[in-house]
Amino acid sequence: RVALEELVAHPGAFDLLLLDMHMPELDGLATVKAIRAGEAGPEAQRMCVIALTADAREQQRAQAMDAGLNGYLTKPLNLGELDAALSRLREERGERSA
Description:
Layout (H helix, E strand, L loop, with lengths): L1 H8 L6 E4 L8 H9 L5 H4 L2 E6 L4 H10 L3 E4 L4 H14 L6
Parallel strand pairs: 1-2, 2-3
């Protein structure tokens, strides 16, 4: 819920959201659905949202990707996997790598 509030309060301020799928008040699946539905504002609808979760189940991954995630990473975080996910997103957006 705090992520949604921050996105509304600061439109366009964030390029990326790393999202845990199992949060106490509003889970990651509901959060990404709300973002894609425009509940966090139009700028947030198109932002990059990547799950960073301990939930490695394929069913959870498929549901989350169908809801609008741009990537799904599992804990413990592998920095190479994060870098690869960010590189794919830059390519999709036509941006050059840093």
